């Protein structure tokens, strides 16, 4: 199967919608933990704070993923999609199938860390 720009755009838009939906669903988990000692014990508060921290970390990762997707969609608009941002070479189609928002070819991605 050849990954066309239209197919990549569809994949990116679908993933963007999924991430936005996850962000909305996890909004409550990221809200401040209530420290009412009458209704919640110390360990329960610690668990709640740990869950909040994990939800916030997930939200930061979703935000980064959304930025990468927006960047890829912009590159599609500008007819620059599929080219490495570092060296300008083609990003292999297999890599784009795995990650349609890939910014770099395999060689440059290794150098990026």
Please tag this protein with its features.
mainly alpha; single chain; 5 helices; about 0% strand; about 110 residues
Write the layout of secondary structure elements.
Layout: H1 5-25, H2 27-30, H3 42-77, H4 93-98, H5 106-112
Helix pairs in contact: 1-3
Describe what this molecule looks like in 3D.
The chain has helices at 5-25, 27-30, 42-77, 93-98, 106-112. The protein is mainly alpha-helical. The longest helix is centred in the middle third of the chain and has 36 residues, at 42-77. The protein is elongated, with a radius of gyration of 19 Å.
Write a compact overview of the structure shown:
With 113 residues, this protein is an all-alpha fold. Helix content is 65%, strand content 0%. The chain has helices at residues 5-25, 27-30, 42-77, 93-98, 106-112.
Topology pattern, helix = H, strand = E: HHHHH
Q: What is the overall silhouette?
A: elongated
Mean of residue pLDDT values: 86
Indicate the low-confidence ranges by residue numbers.
Answer: none
Estimated radius of gyration: 19 Å
Helical segment count: 5
Strand content: under 5%
What share of the residues lie within helices? 55-70%
Query: Can you count the beta strands?
Result: 0
What class would the helix/strand composition place it in? mainly alpha
């Amino acid at each position: 199967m050849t990954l066309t720009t239209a197919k990549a755009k569809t994949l990116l838009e679908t993933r963007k919608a999924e991430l936005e939906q996850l962000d909305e669903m996890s909004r409550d988990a990221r809200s401040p933990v209530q420290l009412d000692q009458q209704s919640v014990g110390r360990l329960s508060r610690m668990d709640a704070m740990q869950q909040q921290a994990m939800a916030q970390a997930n939200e930061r990762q979703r935000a980064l993923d959304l930025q990468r997707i927006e960047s890829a969609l912009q590159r599609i608009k500008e007819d620059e999609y599929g080219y490495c941002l570092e060296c300008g070479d083609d990003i292999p189609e297999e890599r784009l199938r795995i990650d349609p928002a890939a910014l770099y070819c395999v060689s440059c991605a290794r150098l990026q860390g």
